[in-house]
Amino acid sequence: MNEAVKRLKCGLVTENPTFVQMLGMCPTMAVTTSAINGIGMGLTTTVILILSNMMISALRKVIPDKVRIPAYIVIVASFVTIVQFLLEGFVPSLYDSLGIYIPLIVVNCIILGRAESYASKNNVILSMFDGIGMGLGFTVGLTSIGIFREIFGNGSIFGKTIMPESYQPVSILILAPGAFFVLSCLVAVQNKVRLNKLKKAGEAISVCEREDGCASCTNTLCMGKSFTVEGVMGIKEKPDKKMTVGDAVKNKSKNDSDKEV
Amino acid sequence: MELFLIAIGACLVNNVVLSQFLGLCPFIGVSKKVDTAAGMGGAVIFVVTIASAITNLIYTHVLEKLNITYLQTIVFILVIAALVQFVEMFLKKMVPSLYKALGVYLPLITTNCAVLGVALLNVQKSYGFVASVINGFGTAVGFTIAIVIMAGIREKIEYNDIPESFKGTPIVLLTAGLMAMAFFGFSGLIK
Amino acid sequence: MSRESIKNTFSLMLITLIAGVLLGLVYEVTKEPIAKEKLRAKEEAYKAVFAEAASFEEMGEVPDNTRDELVSQGYDADINEIMDVKDQSGSHIGYVLTVTDHEGYGGDIQFAMGVKADGTLNGISFLSIGETAGLGMKATQDSFKNQFSGKKVDKFTYTKNGASADDEIDAISGATITTNAVTNGVNAGLYYINSLY
C-alpha cells in the first residue's frame, strides 16, 4: 500500500508531468485557454491513462517484446476512441471545445511514456495508482495554467468574472502567442529552481548542457526509433545509433536519478 | 481557387505549430541549425502529404463503406506508423540520395502529432482527395516555414546575452510566441 | 520470415483485432443512449428558441442545392433541418431551423434558430461551438445571443461602434470572425425561410 501512495505523490509532485517532466506540451498549450478546458482535458487524459496503464500491465506478459509499442498504441487508441464516444454523447460542450485534441491524446507522450516505463514492468494495481497519480498531476498542471491564463487573459475563473470592471484583460494570453509566453516563463522558473539546487550542491552546470530541455527527450521517448515494423516484419536492421524507447527511458531515469541527487 | 485558399490557410493563417500547437516537439528539438531544420521540414512535407492522401483514400473507400468511421483514430495511427516505415525502406532502396537527405528525420515523424492531426482535420473538414492532399502539403510547408525561421533566429540567439534561467527551451518558446504574433498578420489574407 | 516474426505479427494482429471488435461492441452498446442524449440536447435547444411551442415536426428534407444557393449569397453555411412549430391548439406558429456555419474560428458552429410565422427571429441557441474560450465563446452569452431575439429584419449586420438600428449587432470585441460566422449563419437561416415563400 505504501508503494501506491508513493506512486500518487510521484505523479502529483516529484515527477509531475507538466511542471517537472514537461511532457504532453501540445495539449497543454492548446487547451488551457480556460480553466474548465484544462480540467476537462486533464481528466479525460487521466481516465485514458488509468485504463491503458491497467490494460497494458495486465497484458505485459502476453505482448511480445518486439511489437510492444504498436500494441500499446492500439490499446491506447481504443480507449481514446471509447472516451471520445462518451464525451461526444454526454459532455458535448467539452467535446466541442477540445475538438481534435481528444483523438490526439493517442500520441500524448505521457501515456506511451508511462506504459513503457511503468505499466509494462509493474502489476495492475500499482499501474492503476501510477495512472491516477500521473493523470491527476497532469490535470493539476493544466488546470493551474488554465486558471492563470483565464484570470489574466479574460478576467474570469471557471467562466465567472472575478476581476473588477476596470481591469482590461490581456487577451493575448488566451490567444496562441500567450500559450508560448506562459509556458516559456514556466520552464524558466523550473530552470531557476534547478539552477538553485545545483548551486547549493556546489555544481556549476549551465542549463545549456541539458539537451534543449525536456522537449527533446520527450521527443526521443515517443518518437525515437521506437515504433518500428521491423519487429513485425522481421527485418533485421544493423544496430544503429538511434535511441530506442528502452534506451531513452533508461537515459531518462538516469537523468531523473541524477536530478534527485 | 478554393484549393489555393486551402493551401494558404493551412500554411500561413492556421500555421500548424504557431496556432494549433501540433508538432511542437520537433519544432523545439530540431530547430538548432537551419540545415537540420530544413531537413526535418522536407521529411515532414514528404510524409504528411503522402499520409493525407492515403488516410483520405482509406477513410472514403474502407471506413465509410464499412460504416466503421469510429475506428478512424486507431486505423490512422497504425497506417501512419507503417507508412513511415515503408517510406523509409522504399527511399533507402530506390532513391538513396533523397534517403540520405531525409533518412535521419523519418523515424522521428511517426508520432509527430501533426501527421495524425492533419489526417483527422481532413476528415473533420470533409475534404475530398485533392483538397486533403493540398491541405496536408500546405500544413507541412507551414511547419517547414516555422521551423526554418526559428532555426535562423536561434543561430543568432546563441550570441545574445540571455538571463541564465531563460537559456534553452524558454527563450525558444518566447521567440515562438513572438512569431505566433507575427503570423497573426496573415489572418487577414483569407476573409 | 522467421518463426518469431510470424508469431509477433500474429499477436499484434490478434491484439488489433480484439481491440477493433471490442470497440465495435462498445459503439453498438453506447450508440443508442448517445443518440438519445443528442436528441434531448437538440429538443432543449428547440425549446429555448421557441418557448411557446407545443410540438416540433420535421418538414422533410432540405433540398441538396441549398448549400450552393447560400454560398452564392455569400453565406458559407448549411441548413441541416427545418421544423414546423405548432402551439397547443395545433396551429402553425413558426419554424425552427438548425444551421451549421463553416466560417467559425475553431471550426463549424451549429445552432438552432426559431423564426415566428411573421418572420420575427425568436432567438438562437448553440448546439455545437468550439471557439476560443474567453473570446469567441462569448457568443454563447446572453448579452450577445439575445441581440438577435425579437427582431424582424431580412439581414443582420454587425458593427464595432455600438448598434443603433434593429438590424445591427454589437460585435464581440476581439472575436470578429466568430461574430461574422454567427451573423452570417443567422442571415443564411433567414434567407432560407424567406425563400420558402
Can you characterise this structure?
The complex is a heterotrimer of chains A (261), B (191) and C (197). Chain A has eleven helices and two strands; from the N terminus they run αααααααββαααα. Chain A has helices spanning 2-14, 25-31, 35-58, 68-90, 92-98, 109-119, 124-154, 176-200, 213-223, 230-233, 245-260, and strands spanning 156-157, 160-161. In chain A, strands 1-2 form a two-stranded antiparallel ribbon. In chain A, a hairpin with a 2-residue loop joins strand 1 and strand 2 (160-161). Chain A is globular. Chain B is an all-alpha fold and 191 residues long. Chain B is 73% helix and 0% strand. Chain B has helices at residues 2-13, 24-29, 34-63, 72-94, 96-102, 106-109, 113-124, 129-157, 169-184. The two termini of chain B are 14 Å apart. Chain C has helices at 3-49, 66-72, 142-145, 176-196, and strands spanning 55-58, 77-86, 92-101, 109-116, 121-128, 157-159, 168-170. Chain C is built from four helices and seven strands; from the N terminus they run αβαββββαββα. Chain C has one domain (55-196). In chain C, the strands form two sheets. A five-stranded antiparallel sheet of chain C has the order 1-2-3-4-5, sandwiched between helices. In chain C, strands 6-7 form a two-stranded parallel sheet. Chains in contact: A-B, A-C, B-C. The interface between A and B is large, with 63 and 55 residues.
Largest sheet of chain A: 2 strands, antiparallel
Question: Any low-confidence stretches of chain B, pLDDT <50, length ≥5?
Answer: none
Greatest chain-chain contact? A-B, 63 and 55 residues
Share of helical residues of chain B: over 70%
> Strand arrangement, largest sheet of chain A?
1-2
SSE string of chain A, helices as H and strands as E = HHHHHHHEEHHHH
N→C terminal distance of chain B: 14 Å
The total count of strands of chain A amounts to 2
Computed CA radius of gyration of chain B, to the nearest angstrom? 17 Å
How many H/I helices of chain B? 9
Kindly name the structural category of chain A.
Answer: mainly alpha
- Integer average pLDDT of chain B: 86
* First-residue to last-residue Cα separation of chain A: 26 Å
Low-confidence stretches of chain A: 204-261
Instruction: Give the strand content of chain B.
Output: under 5%
Q: What is the general shape of chain A?
A: globular
Oligomer: heterotrimer
Outline of chain B, from the CA principal axes?
A: globular
Mean pLDDT of chain A: 76
Number of helices of chain A: 11
